[in-house]
Design a protein that fits this description.
alpha+beta; 2 domains; four-stranded antiparallel β-sheet; 39% strand; globular; disordered C terminus
Length: 338
């Protein structure tokens, strides 16, 4: 007969997992399991911070983990955070967004070109429904689709997350005889972490009255009319460029010397339009682009397509010519005969 202490100790040790351990298992299984985003594991802020640093393909799979994760990944503030962490989502710099038509079906096709890689077609949510759609953006990972000429059927689309949302319009209608198109722009309020859509009812060039402006907030899901006292004329359906969440337009503005082209931008903090300083003497054609996170203007004349001036805008110093692009000079007469 084994000693009581030693033998009983081993017996108790063996039965501990089978006896008391098994008696507790049904209670654990029957209890409600904590949600993946519950504070039982990590705070929601930590979960969001971790997920925002993952690749897009991984996030698409993680949307199936739970409803909480799916809702978290679909929120605009999370998408903006993920856009800031992931360089693959930043459709800027050398990346070009291309809108075209399919040669057979005539459906609208949206593609992304990132040199030196090949062109990648992006799944458009409305290839058939939007036969004449226009594209605005991207702005913090989002693209805005709409139908001209009055900016209808506005849709916010995130190509990386493969989700979209149609924006309900207000009851505002263009005034017949005064408005001739609606120009759409996008902006981002970094203080409020809010994606904004601007819809401008543009007056004809013969009228010296301000445009009607309304703004949509993705955070509140509502539109509101903005006060606008600046008189200018927009001739395009979209803003010309978006740089660091700021939308810019090339507009026509009248002064004592006549009518001239002027650049304006939408100040997100003040909710007003501002006129940018003029360069002075310019060539015939100007085109706004983004260059290394700065507002850039390409200035050229069709009479001399070989030369182009590149100007960069700075809030302190204004416009400055960065360089001129043109053909390489021929240093030797023998180079010309090759």
């Amino acid at each position: 007969m084994p000693p009581k202490g030693k033998g009983n100790g081993k017996k108790k040790g063996k039965n501990k997992g089978k006896g008391k351990g098994t008696s507790k298992e049904p209670k654990c299984r029957g209890a409600a399991e904590p949600e993946p985003t519950s504070h039982f594991y990590f705070p929601r802020e930590i979960i969001s911070n971790i997920l925002s640093r993952l690749p897009v393909k991984t996030l698409l799979r993680f949307r199936c983990v739970s409803k909480q994760w799916r809702n978290l990944i679909s929120k605009p503030d999370f998408i903006a955070s993920h856009f800031g962490h992931s360089s693959s989502l930043q459709f800027s710099g050398s990346s070009i967004l291309i809108g075209s038509r399919h040669h057979e079906s005539n459906h609208h096709v949206v593609s992304l070109y990132n040199p030196p890689e090949s062109v990648v077609q992006v799944d458009s949510p409305f290839p058939c429904f939007f036969p004449n759609m226009y594209i605005v953006g991207p702005c913090n990972g989002f693209i805005c689709l709409f139908n001209p000429p009055w900016g209808e059927l506005i849709t916010l689309w995130n190509p990386a997350m493969r989700n979209y949302k149609m924006v309900e319009l207000t009851d505002s209608l263009p005034r017949q005889g005064l408005h001739f198109l609606a120009s759409i722009g996008m902006a981002f309020d970094f203080q409020q972490n809010d994606l904004l859509i601007l819809r401008i009812f543009c007056v004809g060039i013969m009228y010296a009255v301000p445009n009607d402006v309304e703004m949509y907030s993705s955070k509140s899901g509502k539109w509101k009319k903005l006060k606008n006292e600046m008189v200018f004329h927009i001739l395009e359906f979209t803003c010309n460029v978006i740089v660091k969440g700021v939308a810019y337009w090339l507009v026509c503005m009248a002064d004592k010397f006549g009518s001239r082209d002027v650049f304006v931008r939408f100040d997100v903090g003040k909710l007003v339009f501002e006129k940018l300083p003029s360069i002075g003497r310019r060539k015939k054609h100007q085109y706004l682009v983004e260059l290394e996170g700065s507002l850039c203007m390409l200035d050229w004349d069709h009479k001399d397509d070989c030369h182009m001036d590149v100007w960069v805008m700075d809030d302190v110093d204004g416009w400055s010519k960065k360089y001129s692009v043109g053909p390489e000079p021929i240093s030797d007469w023998r180079d010309a005969t090759c």
